[in-house]
Amino acid sequence: MYTIHCFRCEKDTSAESIVEIIQEHTDVAGRYLCSHCGSSHTSVRPVEKTSKANKEEVQKRE
Ligand SMILES: [Zn+2]
User: Fold this and answer.
1) What are the residue boundaries of the structural domains of the chain, listed by start?
2) Ligand 1 mean position to 11 CA, how many Å?
3) pLDDT tens digits for 12-24?
4) pLDDT digits (tens, 9 = 90+) for 2-54
5) Is the pLDDT of residue 61 over 70?
6) Gap from CA of 18 to ligand 1 centroid (Å)
7) Which of 5, 34, 40, 41 is the residue whose CA sits 20 to 30 A from 59?
8) Compositional bias (Basic and acidic residues) at which positions (predicted)?
9) What strands, in cross-sheet order, belong to the sheet with 2-6?
10) Alpha carbon of 54 to ligand 1 centroid (Å)
């Protein structure tokens, strides 16, 4: 899972894969587009399917 986070409307657009984002959520210049407002002022982030990494981080602190 990936999300395109929009800095203009603060909403996230989710996609199953980076391929889906490139095929369906980019403009002619290759910029990632928000599907809510159409802004290209966005950031793409991978989304972890489990919270395992977070749990490990917590355990190190304890
Ligand atoms: Zn937006």
Assistant:
1) 2-61
2) 6
3) 999 999 999 999 9
4) 999 999 999 999 999 999 999 999 999 999 999 999 999 999 999 987 655 55
5) no
6) 18
7) 5
8) 46-62
9) 12-15, 2-6, 42-46
10) 28
> Model pTM?
0.72
Tell me the Cα Rg of the chain: 14
Distance 2 CA to ligand 1 centre (A): 16
CB 14 within 8 A of CB 1: yes
Report how far ligand 1's centroid is from the alpha carbon of 48 (Å). Answer: 22
User: Which residues fall within 8 angstroms of residue 5, CB to CB, at 6 or more apart?
Assistant: 12, 42, 43, 44, 45
Compute the distance from residue 40 Cα to the ligand 1 centre, in Å.
Answer: 8
Please list the residues that pair with 4 across neighbouring strands. Answer: 13, 44
